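Hello Y.,

Per our agreement to keep a running log of every chain we model this quarter, I'm adding this entry. I've kept the format consistent with earlier entries: sequence first, then predicted structure.
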Amino acid sequence: MIEIKQIAFIINGARRLNLTIQQMIDQCTDNPSFQVHIVKTTQAKEAIELSTKFSEEGIDLIVAVGGDGSVNEVMNGMMRANRKPLLAIIPNGTGNDFYRSAFNNSRQGDFLSALKNPSVMSVDVGKIESDLGTQYFLNIADVGFGAAVVEILNKQRIYFGGKASYALAILRTFIGFKTPHLSIQSATYQYSGPVFMVAFCNGDMFGDGLYIHPGAKVNDGVLNITLLKKIGLMDYVRNLKNLKTGKRINHPEAFYFAENKLRIQVSKGKAVTETDGEHFPTADLNVSIIPSALKLLVTEW
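Predicted structure for the entry above:
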């Protein structure tokens, strides 16, 4: 039987907590059954160090309060620790795409009840190795267009936030994006040529609800790959409805398959990577999946 006594809330300090989330945290703090630690981050990557520290100190549950980037940092800290507590998520970001993928678009349920009668699910974790070290992702990582969107999105958030920011970043990226040439190799697949985007999918959606790989599951034990070779703005516009409703892109240059390991190399042009909305400034990568790497507290209804 799972018993939760010590809880650490790692909160993205850059985002305001609404009344509902604050009440969830207060209920836990006021409950004598729990010993609660609350930390608000003040700078990027701080949640990684906090998560590693709490994991090593024997915390039973780490709660990531924020968006996909915050969840990514907390998870990366846990993956670097020698012991791994339970992970829980209170979504408080723009897209919250991993939470929506994991719980099939369900909404946050009674958090206190979930703590008292815990149910957990195993989730896979993606792993990226490069000359810059090792980075983990919980939802989606990609090379090409999606990563270029994240670069612009992170820059414009200073001036323009909210859900419309994703759409604006996509349109701005199309204006100057130049398709790189990549070499993609795995045990069963090889390709070398122009790549608009190659996405490594643990979950099925990113970019605030765009289904980049419909049917992908966070606990299916494989990397679900979406490869888009030659795609333009009008192709995106024509398939936007499919992306929003969970249908596969209808285009001869769109390919879907599953692998356990991939090698990505840039052969021409410039390409970068993003992992759960976090910019990663290289695209020469080894990508793999770690099945059932973490336990996630079920909190949806």
